[in-house]
Amino acid sequence: MLPRKRVGHPQDLDALLVMLASAESHFVNGAIITADDGFAL
C-alpha cells in the first residue's frame, strides 16, 4: 500500500531538515509538514 513500495528511513528526511535549517526557510512559519511519501493523497 506504500507509494514507493518501501518503508521510509531517517535519511529520507535529510533534504527537508537541511531546507528548514537554511535561510531559505525564513518564510515557513507554523507549518505542519507531513512526511508520508504522498500516502495522504
Could you list some keywords that capture this structure?
41 residues; 20% helix; single chain; mainly alpha; 1 helix
In brief:
By secondary structure, the chain is mainly alpha-helical. The protein has one helix and no strands.
Structure write-up:
The chain is mostly helical. It is 20% helix and 0% strand. It has one helix and no strands. It has one helix spanning 14-21. The longest helix has 8 residues, at 14-21. The chain starts with 13 loop residues before the first helix and ends in a 20-residue tail after the last helix.
- Poorly predicted runs are none
Helical segment count? 1
User: Quick one: biggest sheet?
Assistant: none
Helix content: 10-25%
Overall mean pLDDT stands at: 84
Radius of gyration: 12 Å
**How would you classify the helix and strand content by structural class?**
mainly alpha
Please give the structural blueprint.
Blueprint: H1 14-21
